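Notebook, student rotation project (T.W.).
Task set for the rotation: take a protein with a known small-molecule partner, predict the structure of the complex, and write up what can be learned from the model alone. Partner molecule chosen: zinc ion. Sequence and SMILES entered below by T.W., checked by me.
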Amino acid sequence: MAYLIRSAHLYSPEDKGIKDVLIVNDKVAAIGENLKIELPGLEIINAEGKIMTPGLIDQHIHVTGGGGEGGPRTRTPEIQLSELIECGTTSLVGVSGTDSLTRSIPNLLAKVQALTEEGVTAWMYTSNYSYPPTTLTGSVKGDLLMVHECLGVKIALGDHRSSFPTSQQVMDLLTQIRVGGMIAGKLGVLHIHLGNVPGAFEIFKEVVARGMPIRHIRPTHCARDAKVFEHALNFAKAGGRIDITTGGSCFLSSPADAVETAWKEGIDESLITMSSDGHGSVPRFNDKGEMIGLGVGGVACNLRDARKLLERGYKPEKVLPLLTRNVAKGLELKGKGEVIIGNSADVCIFDQDWQLQDVISKGVVMMKDKQLLVKGTFEQ
Ligand SMILES: [Zn+2]
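Predicted structure of the complex:
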């Protein structure tokens, strides 16, 4: 398969101006102006007047469904391929959540493998909210080494649904992740669901002071309340990466406001990412801890909030890295997050109003002129 995408305004996410992009099989093979290519079966996609970006990366999706806080009928459903493609997500990390009993880690692994077979690229974090971690192989190191898709471990800190490990236990876990990552040739990260109970950032400060590199510590839901956000900004000022959830858990009127605040605070822009928390439950609790309502997170919120920032006049090369290069660099996802020669052919094509038109994932046209061409196995 070969496609020549003609005359798109390319944001790689850098502003590259008007470019032709050649895709051969699953890779970006050439980028240039007025490329003259002869290849058997080459298809031309005319993208004049359109905008091309890397495929978006969402590092926090409950692909197998989450929830369950209100009993069996409140377990949220599994994600389907179309939902991802319709919002330009071509890479993702699957996570587990509150329910560590019925949402098994083998189930999560099988689901990310299924999504990768269906056409996107999916990874996962082992474990869920609880400590000690639930693993596939019996150890964190084993999961990192033996499970290709495993990028690290998920945990929740400061949430009434989680465990409350001590700083020594968090340090032990990070050591397992760091050494497991070394052995496996991966970065190895601890992906942390932050709750409202304070204390998590104090733990991070302590473990970093004891010698743990800050790059292994990855808090998410960083804008869930004002206190957490303030701590998160300080964590980023110390060189830590922070993730802002677009699908809920935000104290400001929009997650885009949180990103804007972080930019204005002078945080190193490459350290900020956004993720959707898609297909997680969005329970609402009263002050007695009783659940009073429940919703399901969507995955389109990432694109919605990126669009909000663009509408406020921020340049695409500033906004797009939140969902592309910053995520790929932060997790060492090789060949992802940038439209450059040799990288995975994951691209989105938008019209001038940032309405998504076409999606190509691993060199396969998944959506063309807003029509889905490839659907999930059970969506036909
Ligand atoms: Zn979540």
